[in-house]
Amino acid sequence: MNRLLLFLGLSTGLLFSSCGDDVQDNVVINIPDTDEECCNAEETFLAYSFLNNGYVKELTELRDTIDNKYVLKVYSAGGKLHVGYNDLFFALIKIATDGYVRDFQVNDIRPLMTMTAMGMQHSTPTETETTVYNETFPAVRHAWVSFLMSSGDNGYWELSYKAAWQQKEIEHTPTVIEVNALPAGQNWLKSFKKDNQTYYLTLVNPNTFQTGNNTIRAYVSKQSADKKVPYLTAEETFTIEITPTMPDMGDHTSPNNTPLIKQESGIYEGNLNLSMTGLWNIHLVVKDQEGNIVTGGDNDNSGYSSLYWSVTI
Ligand SMILES: [Cu+2]
Q1: CA atoms within 13 A on the CB side of 20
Q2: How far is the CA of 73 from the centre of ligand 1 (A)?
Q3: 132 inside domain
Q4: pLDDT one digit per residue (tens) for the chain, 313 residues
């Protein structure tokens, strides 16, 4: 912003000096080089606006600095984490100028839970490498983590990551993070087994659902052979059929729901119609590419699959 104002000031100066024909001012004007590392003014403004819109807040325990010159900040909705799907946003800030660095990468994002009493550790479904969240402000990168359980008596969560840009690299060693339980009755993460392999069904941001038609999104992740390694999305392609019911209202359903289909990016998308407010159980039948039922073939007393997410709108 300062640079823009400076440029305008200089232009005005040039206009004035050109009024006198005979004046040959050989003034050398030193316009500062643009900072190649950082975003331009518009991208900076958009990134700043996004990160200060009141929706995302910094997870300060995940902040890291390098050489006292750069600070890497991690943000989530409300600066909190909970069981199930969480968006994570990353920004790298040059301390001297407050500029946002572009073209950096964050990878090897590793959530790890230590189960104190059981003496074991496990990871959880995770997108381990960030991508640009919005092309209009490439300073903000995004990844997600879907936590299997909350921090508490059974154990604690830590998270580590690596960041790299140009020739610089940092490694954020594991720091403890707080993962909150969901409100009672909510369940946004389910698992199933196929051929002795455990899969996880992560429902993306159901707290944005509204009455009526919603795009429903989910990820299917595969438990790693080494449970301490983050669980990546499954290469296989499934179809996730959904039947939403209202358990408090005689398990009535709603029309116009469509199955979740795998998109090019790896996310599954379908249409979910929540015809009124209240508690909805979204019953799931997962099929393979040949149409065979992988899970969800057993009905509960609602008459629909005993595998379901529970969401209150
Ligand atoms: Cu655990």
Answers
A1: 7
A2: 26
A3: yes
A4: 334 333 333 333 333 333 344 445 566 655 444 677 788 889 999 999 999 999 999 999 999 998 888 999 999 999 999 999 999 999 999 999 889 998 899 999 999 999 998 999 999 999 999 999 999 999 999 999 999 999 996 899 999 999 998 888 899 999 999 999 999 999 999 999 999 999 999 999 999 999 999 999 999 999 999 999 999 999 999 999 999 999 999 999 999 999 999 999 999 999 999 999 999 999 999 999 999 999 999 999 899 999 999 999 9
- CA 164 to ligand 1 center in whole angstroms: 30
In a domain, 210, yes or no: yes
CA of 228 relative to ligand 1 center, distance in Å: 11
**Claim to verify: residue 47 and residue 107 sit in the same structural domain:** yes
Domain assignment present for 14: no
What's the 79 CA to ligand 1 centre distance in angstroms? 22
Note whether 128 and 221 are same-domain residues. Answer: no
3-state secondary structure of 15: helix
Confidence (pTM): 0.88
Enclosing domain of residue 268: 189-312
Residue 73: count of CB within 10 angstroms of its CB: 17
Q: 298 CA distance to ligand 1 centroid (A)?
A: 27
- 1: in domain: no
